Structure to design on (411 residues):
């Protein structure tokens, strides 16, 4: 039996992309991420995968239930598992040290995955007047330095669609020219996460690079019919009041076809982090109005339409849709990191609950399985979820890359 293909995950976030690649049979050698809470989440997940492979998941379940502390969870875990998560910013000063840590493992690297922070390319980011001098715009060069150091057979680079138009398209031209210069044929396409089982309209640019001696072009990833809705994703979760929920709760219903088919309820008989924000009376009145408008006629609440006593500022010309209900009968709109700031853009469609969505509901919209545990505060968890690559989309990419890389090895 051949060894699994190996990879490094750059700018890894909480590990959403990595989750999809592990499920497709890849072996992670290193995850590099600058956010400490996201790294804590990835270490916990790395322990999950180790305990799963050794038949000791009960220990992990006890941890996410709150029955044991993290120190006890980590007891007996090989150092290389915990050290595979490298909590550091990738820059000129740190990159050589990162290379040394990875080289200590003595493993050949088959693939590099990941995408640099995308805020500079997003529609919101483009309001930043000094965008062309934003150092995040050149992080692809750091990515390329990993390609030069480890010479993987291929890479997968993920980012927002705004990458294509940044600096009138010149930035993307520079990126492609740079990757080609260092020995990779480069292809790209825009994928929608909803084509791969994710209950969310989320478009992302996927760039695939191949070593020039084994060029497979842009892979054809297998799409899945859109048969399910947000209500399917939320159906079995206990109903919550604003500020409600607990660290561990029982499901209110058996799993449905969506949850079973895509393995979101993957063996656990309890749900964690189904916790919602508290809301003040003013916001609750606005939420109620927004839910009624949406559920009765699929009409979005616009800020100028609010009664005077509910308005807090005079700006009625921008961000008019700052209160947005998630479409229960269809796909959710894109989940972004701003969900960590407030829940106004992610209001639950059930008027009886009248609140913004919980941490677990946001995780389900991003297709994280229910046994995926986010470390840190509630806000930190929301931020990690909003920044993540949906694991189901990542898995569709990973399965095809595995197939093509194995085909390459057979030559």
């Amino acid at each position: 039996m051949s060894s699994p293909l190996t990879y490094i995950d750059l700018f890894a976030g909480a590990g959403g992309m990595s989750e999809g690649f592990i499920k497709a049979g890849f072996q992670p050698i290193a995850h590099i991420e600058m956010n400490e809470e996201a790294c804590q989440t990835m270490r916990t997940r790395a322990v999950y995968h180790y305990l799963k492979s050794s038949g000791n998941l009960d220990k992990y379940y006890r941890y996410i239930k709150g029955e044991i502390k993290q120190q006890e969870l980590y007891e007996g875990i090989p150092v290389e598992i915990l050290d595979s998560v490298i909590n550091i910013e990738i820059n000129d000063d740190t990159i050589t040290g990162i290379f040394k840590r990875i080289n200590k493992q003595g493993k050949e690297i088959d693939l590099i995955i990941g995408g640099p922070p995308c805020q500079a390319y997003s529609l919101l980011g483009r309001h930043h007047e000094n965008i062309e001098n934003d150092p995040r715009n050149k992080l692809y060069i750091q990515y390329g330095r990993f390609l030069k150091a480890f010479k993987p057979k291929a890479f997968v680079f993920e980012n927002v669609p705004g990458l294509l138009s940044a600096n009138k398209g010149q930035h993307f031209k520079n990126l492609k020219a740079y990757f080609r210069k260092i020995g990779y044929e480069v292809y790209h396409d825009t994928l929608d996460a909803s084509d791969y089982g994710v209950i969310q309209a989320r478009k992302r640019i996927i760039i695939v690079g191949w070593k020039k001696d084994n060029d497979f072009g842009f892979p054809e990833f297998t799409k899945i019919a859109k048969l399910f809705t947000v209500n399917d994703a939320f159906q079995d979760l206990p109903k919550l009041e604003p500020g409600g929920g607990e660290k561990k709760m029982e499901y209110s219903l058996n799993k449905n076809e969506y949850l079973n088919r895509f393995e979101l309820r993957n063996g656990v008989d309890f749900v964690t982090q189904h916790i919602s924000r508290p809301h003040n009376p003013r916001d609750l009145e606005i939420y109620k109005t927004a839910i009624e408008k949406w559920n009765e006629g699929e009409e979005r609440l616009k800020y100028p339409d609010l009664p005077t006593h509910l308005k807090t500022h005079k700006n009625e010309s921008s961000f008019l849709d700052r209160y947005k209900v998630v479409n229960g009968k269809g796909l959710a709109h894109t989940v972004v990191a701003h969900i960590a700031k407030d829940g106004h853009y992610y209001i639950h469609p059930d008027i009886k609950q009248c609140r913004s969505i919980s941490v677990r509901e946001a995780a389900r919209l991003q297709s994280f399985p229910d046994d995926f545990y986010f470390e840190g505060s509630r806000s930190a968890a929301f931020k990690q979820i909003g920044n993540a690559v949906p694991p189901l989309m990542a898995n569709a990419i990973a399965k095809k890359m595995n197939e093509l890389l194995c085909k390459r090895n057979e030559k």
Notes: The first strand starts at residue 6 and ends at 10. The first helix runs from residue 16 to 23.
